Amino acid sequence: MSSQKPWSKESWRNFPALQQPNWPDQQAYQEALATLSQLPPLVFAGEIRDLKKQLAMASRGEAFLLQGGDCAESFSLCTAPVVRELLKVILQMTVILGYAGGKPVVKVGRMAGQYAKPRSADTEMVNGVELPSYRGDMVNSSEPTPEARRPDPQRLVKGYFLACATMNILRAFTRGGYAALDRVHAWNNEFVKNSPHGQMYEKLARQIEQAINFMRVVGLDTNIPQLTQASFFTSHEALLLGYEESLTRQDSTTGDWYDCSAHMLWIGERTRQVEGAHVEFFRGVHNPIGVKIGPNHDIDNVKRLISTLNPENEPGKLTLITRFGIKKIAEGLTPLVRSLKEEGFNLVWSCDPMHGNTYTSASGLKTRNFINILEEIRAFFEIHWQEGTVPGGVHFEMTGADVTECVGGGRDILDQQLGQRYMTMCDPRLNAEQSLELAFQIAELLRS
Ligand code: PEP
Ligand code: CO
To answer: Which atom of ligand 1 is closest in space to residue 294's alpha carbon?
Structure first.
C-alpha cells in the first residue's frame, strides 16, 4: 500500500504535479524556496492538533465546521478593514449556528494564504490576445499584459509575508478582545443592520448579551477565554507544492511533520489523483486535510484516496468537501455516502455549495444563484440524514464587503445588477447579508 512507502517532504517530486506554474527563471524560483525554508512557521503544531480535535468532534456531529473566505485573496487587499469585515461575518455566523443551531462551531478561514488558483487552461484569450492564465497573486498578476502574467517567484515570498501579516491581525482580533462575546452587537455590519436578517441577528445578539449579563449578576466570572476569545484557524488550497514543502517542519515534541503554512490544507478537485504529487505530499503531513469531490469522481478511487491520506482512520484528519451542484447532488452524493459508510471511514462531510453552481450570467459575469446554494445545502443535509451519516460542515466563498457577485438572497440581487460591485479576483462570493441569511437557514437544519 502506498501509505507504507517511505515519505519525505521532497518525495512528491517523483510524482506528476498538476497545476504548477512554469517558473521562467528556475534559479530565482529555487532561491525563493530556500528563503522560505528559513523563515518561521506561520502556525504551530499544537494549534493544528487542536483543530484536528475540533474536527473529530465535527465528524461525530458534536460540532459543525464553518470554512469560508475569498476564492482568491488579493495582495492589495491585505488590510486590517478587509480582514476584520470578513472575520466579523464569520463570527456572526458562528453565533447564529451556535446559539440558534445549538452546535459549537469550528471556525476556519480561507484566509492568510489563499493566493494560488488552479486553472482549466494554461492560457486565456483577453481581448483577442492569448495570455498565460492568472494563477493567483502568489504566482502572477491578474492584470492582462504578458509581463504581469509572467510567473514571478518573488511573489511566493511576498505571499508568505502577507499571510503572516493577515495571521497576525487575525490573532490580535480573536485573542485581543474584539471577538469577546459581549461585543456581539459590534459585529453587525453597517450595510446589513437594517436588513431583515441583520435585524434577526440584532435580536439574537441582545439575548446573548442578556445571558452574559445574567451570569455576571449571579456572580459568575465572565472573564474567561471561552467568552473573551475565539479560536480561529486558517486554510488554503495547497496547490503550489514547492511553497508547501518549504513551510513543512518537523515538530520537536512529537517528531511528526506539519505543513506550517496554515492549520488546514485542502486538495482541489483538479489535483486529487491518488498517484499524483499532491496526494503524495499530503499523506505525510499531520495537518487536517480536506479533499474536494465533484460529480466526476470514481467511488473506488475515492476509497483509495481516503486510505492513502488517512491510513490510521484517525477522526478529524480528513474532510471530504463535496461540490456537486444542485443538479447533481442527489445522484452523486447518495451512492458516495453509502459506500464510504460501509467501509467505516471516519470523515467530516462538508458541503461546498459554491463550485458546482457557477454559471455565466447574461451580463457575461460568472455568478451563482443564492437559491441553488441554499438548495444544495438542504439536499446535503437530507441525504446525510437519510443515510445515517453526519452533515458536518459547510465551505463558502464569501466576503464581509457589500459586493454584488451572487444573484438572489434577501435583497434579491438581479442579473443586471451584478456589475455594480463585482470585485472578486476569481469566483463570485456571497456578501455579508447573503452569508447571514444562509447561517439562519443552516441553524434551522441543525436544530431539526
Ligand atoms: C476553490 O475552492 O476555489 C476551487 C478551485 O474549488 P474546486 O477545487 O472544488 O474546483
Ligand atoms: Co473558487
So the answer is: 9
